[in-house]
């Protein structure tokens, strides 16, 4: 993508884009089936198909929609799909595009979760996940480097990242507080005109021809349904809030606040509101709570879940579905464990992704008012810088629990953290993780070959060594 986009002529009146709803459903299903590799890869797939191949939407409008989605909590790629689907075919288009983006991953991870709890102790399955853990560690380290190189442009941003790492790793600060403080610092810095807070970076589409909005099916004009309508926004917001929070309230009322399903509904609903910065940042928060507070999963199982999410289509945040599955499987509340686990996975997915529609449908008609807002852009930049520190914490946490068999708690004043017991170093895990790192950074190998090779080597080690 070129560094600048030439401004198009004055917007014309909206026109019929000629894209049938049936054709759109087929294309959204195709995008969903190809949506591997994290948000950058998923956004690139959408750009290639919707902008370059189909020419349904132009470069400028695509990037504007993406910038708005990056301001929101939740998975920006899924929200971008819902946004563009809404632009093309109103509310039903947004609902279908967003749902299809999630559905293949939901079904795949659900099936793999059954295999995990039923056959996870079989040597070959243990070996596969042993190898996946090592590869996932390299992938997370790559995410730190990738996001950091794009975001930490000056010492102020590096300081925000370092402060975020210290706060979450050494002080156990909650992720929502880190996000809010970073956003406040960025907003105030942007309002003050401090150059260090000028926004930049973000996920961008692939390089190539710039497709002008006027040359696409949607054109330059704003569709009639996309014009700001406060009445419609309030109605759709009320409906979505009811669909999201009514089941949560019902669970608390009928099952009580101590029930596992109430915990799942409450925790992941809270997560849906504060999960800025992408899946890797969210995983640090989920790991902190699911492992340390609720004891739903072990650190190793968190790594297994991320391995599943990396190898299936859809947003990486689908790892939360795996957490909800295991939580309900182990505390079935009188239900058959697999039935409870299925309900737990479904409930987790519902309260994680339904709020995404609320942010899109309520805010999208007013998104033009955010365009070029320096203070909001600066807040986003500061949040992204803090996210680098949070992802670094995740990488360190994963490394400790992947490469060492035992950890010991350390307390120094207000600080409380874990350090590995050096004598418990797992040499085979270190060799696999080192090999994956060399493949990632030295040979620029793709994610799938690395994950496949590491899983195969892990299985071979467990079976034959």
Could you explain how this protein is built, in words?
The protein has 465 residues and is an all-alpha fold. The protein has one domain. The protein has 16 helices and two strands. The protein has a two-stranded antiparallel ribbon. The N and C termini lie far apart (49 Å). It comes from Sphingomonas agrestis. Keywords: Cell membrane, Membrane, Transmembrane, Transmembrane helix. It is a multi-pass membrane protein.
List the helices and strands and how they pair.
Blueprint: H1 21-33, H2 38-53, H3 59-70, H4 76-119, H5 123-151, H6 155-170, H7 175-191, H8 230-255, H9 260-274, H10 279-292, H11 299-310, H12 319-330, H13 337-363, H14 374-403, E1 407-412, E2 415-420, H15 427-442, H16 447-464
Antiparallel strand pairs: 1-2
Helix pairs in contact: 1-4, 2-4, 3-4, 4-12, 4-13, 5-11, 5-14, 5-15, 5-16, 6-14, 7-14, 8-9, 8-13, 9-12, 9-13, 10-14, 11-12, 12-13, 15-16
């Amino acid at each position: 993508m070129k560094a600048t986009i030439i401004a198009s002529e004055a917007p014309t009146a909206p026109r019929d884009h000629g894209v049938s709803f049936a054709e759109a459903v087929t294309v959204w299903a195709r995008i969903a089936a190809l949506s591997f590799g994290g948000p950058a890869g998923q956004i690139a797939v959408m750009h290639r198909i919707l902008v370059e191949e189909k020419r349904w939407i132009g470069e400028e409008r695509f990037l504007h929609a993406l910038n708005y989605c990056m301001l929101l909590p939740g998975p920006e790629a899924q929200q971008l799909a819902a946004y563009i689907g809404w632009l093309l075919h109103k509310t039903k288009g947004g609902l279908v595009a967003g749902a299809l983006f999630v559905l293949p991953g939901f079904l795949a991870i659900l099936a793999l979760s059954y295999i995990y709890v039923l056959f996870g102790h079989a040597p070959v399955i243990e070996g596969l996940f042993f190898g996946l853990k090592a590869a996932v560690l390299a992938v997370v380290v790559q995410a730190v480097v990738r996001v950091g190189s794009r975001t930490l442009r000056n010492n102020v941003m590096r300081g925000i990242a370092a402060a975020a790492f210290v706060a979450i790793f050494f002080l156990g600060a909650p992720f929502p507080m880190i996000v809010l403080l970073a956003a406040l610092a960025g907003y105030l810095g942007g309002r003050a005109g401090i150059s260090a807070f000028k926004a930049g970076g973000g996920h961008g589409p692939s390089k190539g021809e710039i497709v002008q909005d006027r040359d696409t099916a949607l054109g330059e004009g704003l569709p009639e349904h996309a014009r700001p309508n406060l009445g419609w926004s309030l109605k759709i917001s009320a409906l979505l809030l009811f669909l999201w929070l009514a089941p949560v309230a019902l669970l608390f009322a009928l099952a009580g606040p101590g029930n596992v399903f109430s915990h799942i509904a409450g925790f992941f609903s809270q997560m849906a509101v504060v999960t800025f910065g992408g899946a890797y940042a969210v995983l640090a928060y989920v790991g902190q709570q699911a492992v340390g507070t609720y004891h739903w999963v072990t650190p190793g199982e968190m790594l297994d879940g991320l391995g599943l999410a990396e190898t299936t289509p859809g947003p990486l945040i689908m790892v939360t579905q795996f957490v909800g599955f295991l939580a309900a499987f182990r505390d079935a509340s009188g239900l058959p464990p697999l039935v409870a686990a299925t309900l737990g996975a479904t409930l987790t997915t519902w309260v994680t992704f339904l709020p995404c529609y609320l942010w899109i449908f309520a805010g999208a008609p007013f998104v033009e008012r955010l365009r070029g807002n320096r203070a909001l852009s600066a807040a986003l930049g500061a949040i992204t810088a803090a996210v680098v520190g949070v992802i670094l914490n995740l990488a360190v946490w994963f490394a400790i629990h992947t490469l060492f068999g035992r950890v010991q708690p350390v307390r120094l004043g207000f600080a409380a953290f874990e350090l590995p017991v050096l004598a418990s170093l797992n040499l085979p895990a270190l060799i696999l993780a080192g090999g994956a790192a060399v493949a990632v950074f030295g040979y620029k190998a793709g994610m799938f070959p690395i994950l496949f090779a590491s899983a195969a080597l892990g299985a071979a080690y467990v079976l034959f060594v």
